[in-house]
TrEMBL record:
Descriptive protein name: DUF218 domain-containing protein
Superkingdom: Bacteria
Organism of derivation: Virgisporangium ochraceum
Domain named DUF218: residues: 9-81
Coiled-coil parts of chain: none
Transmembrane intervals: none
GO cellular component, one term: plasma membrane
InterPro entries named in the record: Cell_Envelope_Assoc, DUF218, Rossmann-like_a/b/a_fold
Length: 92
């Protein structure tokens, strides 16, 4: 697997997880072209706009070590959208 494939794999994995947990396929939009957190925010906004979707709240899914950066990037690039912060419970 080359590095570019890892980005697509991550997006596909999150999509499959959502499907396995009851999110209907028709409710999932998958952005697979970005290579950075900022790019993901920008391209996701474009994807939503192209479908006429103007969200007021979004769920930001990210690896635990990247959560702070992802949240900050969303707040900077999409201040009109609420992105609640959720942190996994400590296991130790």
């Amino acid at each position: 697997m080359i590095a570019a494939d890892l980005w697509v794999y991550e997006a596909v994995s999150y999509r499959e997880y959502a499907l396995e947990h009851g999110v209907p396929d028709g409710k999932i939009l998958n952005e697979t072209a970005s290579r950075t957190t900022a790019g993901n925010v920008t391209l996701t906004r474009e994807l939503l706009a192209a479908k006429g979707i103007e969200p007021k709240t979004v769920i930001v899914i990210s690896r635990s070590y990247q959560q702070r950066r992802a949240y900050g990037t969303f707040r900077k690039l999409g201040p009109e959208v609420t992105a609640p912060r959720f942190a996994p419970e400590s296991t130790g």
